Amino acid sequence: MAIKDVDYFNEGNSLLNSGKTEEAIQSYNKAIELNSEIPEYHYNKGVALLQLGKYDEAIVSFDSSIELAPKFKEPYINKIVCLLQTNKAEEALETSDKCLEFYPNDSYTYILKGCALNILKRYEEVLDTSDKVISLNPFENTVLSYAYSNKGAALAWLRRYEDAFNACNKAIDLYNANTDAYLSMSFAYSLQRNYEKAIDMCDKVIEINPSSLDAYINKSSYLVYAERYEEAVECCNKALEMDVLKSPYIESSLLANKAGALASLNKAEEALAATEKAIELCPENSLAYANKGSALDILGRYEEALVFSNRAIGLDPTLGYAYSAKGHSLYMLKKYDEAIAACSKAIELNPEDIRICVQCYTNIGASLNEKGNYEEALENIDKAMEYEINDPNILYSVYVNKAYALTGLQKFEESLEYSNKAIELNPQDCKGYVNKSSALIKLSKYDEAIECCNTAIESNIEDYLLYNNMGFALEKKGKLKQALQAYSKSLALSPDNGLVKSNLLRALTWYNIKRVCLFLAIFSVIAAIIIIAVVQIIKKKKSQTITP
After folding, report:
1. Looking at residue 547, what is its pLDDT?
2. CA Rg, the chain, in Å?
3. 525: pLDDT confidence band, cut at 50, 70 and 90?
4. At residue 546, does pLDDT exceed 50?
5. What CA–CA distance (Å, rounded) separates 437 from 471?
6. 208 and 177 in contact (C-beta within 8 Å)?
């Protein structure tokens, strides 16, 4: 007796229920081969594919089911889940609206629609959608709970923190295992810069559901904001090593966060490798591109860094971090006006993000320093210092640029104070020593300036400005030969530098004048000695010719 399509379908269901998902798919395929017009065959195959994390294939199956039965609700629901898992929020929203045309009062579809709207940052619409669910289900606690947690997330992003916490607490009261509510609270705390509480909320989610990858993604982000970079890397590694189903988007997000932490630890090569894997997994991951730009920037590959920062902005024009990374690359390429514009945009987009604000105000200050606008530079650097800064790398940059601005404003003693702070934080970088020696020269403390430069050089720091400053101080001390040696070393490090060439020429001129003067002085002495000797000889001869 021939096996019918329904037999394969039932076999597939039995296999799926017993956890034999791959075998179930084979049975569904056989059912579809015999009869491809049954929407349930395609739907159940889609469910099996979804369980395996094969979201794109699952979507194809759900679409086939919907095409055969446009009013079949479940394929819409599961398709939306797959689209959200692959970060296709626009398509998820379209599918939600299509489902709601047939089922205008379906609460679960509204909840999924709210998730898509949150991803798309359409927060006011999330509130409307959540309120719709609440009005439809006044007595269904679990459904109400998810409506309130969606609402809490949107209220947090709208900076309505008290309302956000109230909505999240309501969600937890209705269903205390609603992990989305704790994650929404973590958003609110992070936006208030209370990263420790945000981390606590993620830990609560992990306690409820140890396999919650969303909790690990958010926690690693907050650890970076809290400047706990090593812990952030560990958090991402733990999630990446977990034997749980991960969509390419989720894995990509974990790798992108790991890259951000590695970049903050100045492990640029490792960060770069993580971003490349993240992009391979999810080519639409804007943060991965931004972090790749940041890693390339650390490696001094500024033109390449700009390419990836711009790609990130193209994918997500609201990603402040990408503008921040772009701003620093533009500064290093001496495109100061463009750097200021990029950093200003980053601050506008993320005024609550301490790292972005500190880095961008500092980069704006640095760009203005290079333009000679020292007053305005100092104003921006002081804005950066209004935030609590614990990251020594960021703090070093703040101190260095403040010292530079103060020197430009002829506030040399204050400049020395911040130069010393910078050197204390990073004694292996040249900028602190350059600023300090420049201020000492302006204060006519030439011996101290020479000592400062020598300290840096003895630490194997090679920078043309160090040797230039040393040359200038030696020149002022009248040690022209040593000054020429310092200027020559400076020029070797920066062969096209006009300032160094000018200083070298001036010192060489004075050195030659000094040599000529010395020669003339020696000649004059010798001539005087000769003249005296001749006079003595003549006198002696005269005395010998006189008769008694």
Report:
1. 42
2. 36
3. low
4. no
5. 11
6. yes
CA 403 to chain centre: 25
Residue 369 has pLDDT above 50, yes or no: yes
* φ, ψ dihedrals at 244, nearest 5°: -135, 160
What is the average pLDDT across 120-148? Answer: 93
Give the long-range contacts of residues 427-432, CB within 8 A, separation 24 or more: 427/459, 428/459, 428/461, 429/396, 429/461, 430/456, 430/461, 430/462, 430/463, 430/465, 430/466, 431/400, 432/396, 432/399, 432/400, 432/403
Instruction: Measure the CA–CA gap between 47 and 76, rounded to whole angstroms.
Output: 12
> Which tokens go with 127?
């509130």
What pLDDT band is residue 516 in, cutting at 50, 70 and 90?
Answer: low
Annotate 427-475 with three-state secondary structure: CCCHHHHHHHHHHHHHCCCHHHHHHHHHHHHHCCCCCHHHHHHHHHHHH
d(Cα 530, Cα 430) in Å, to the nearest integer? 55
Tokens of 495: 């062969």
Q: What are phi and psi of 140, to 5 degrees?
A: -100, 95
Q: What is the DSSP letter of 244?
A: S
Closest-CA residue to 293 (of 370, 250, 338, 278) = 278
- Predicted confidence at residue 380, as pLDDT, reads 97
> Is 294:263 a contact under the CB 8 Å cutoff?
yes
Confidence of residue 531 (pLDDT cuts 50, 70, 90): low
User: What's the pTM?
Assistant: 0.82
Q: Are 442 and 477 in contact (CB under 8 A)?
A: no
**What are the respective helix, strand and coil percentages of the chain, to the nearest 5?**
80, 0, 20
User: H helices within 192-301, ranges in order?
Assistant: 195-208, 213-225, 229-241, 248-264, 268-281, 286-298
Contact status, residue 134 vs residue 120, Cβ threshold 8 Å: no
Question: Average per-residue pLDDT in the chain?
Answer: 92
